[in-house]
Amino acid sequence: NIVRGNSVIDDKEVDQYGNVWKDKFSKIINSGGFDIVIGNPPWQGVKPDVDEFFTPLKETNLLLATKFPNKKQKFSKLNDKQKESIIEECIKKKDILTLYEKYQDKYKIQMDYFGSTSKYSLQGKGDINLYKLFLEMSLQITHKKSLLGLIVPAGIYLDLGTEGLRQEIFV
Question: pTM of this prediction?
Answer without folding.
Answer: 0.83
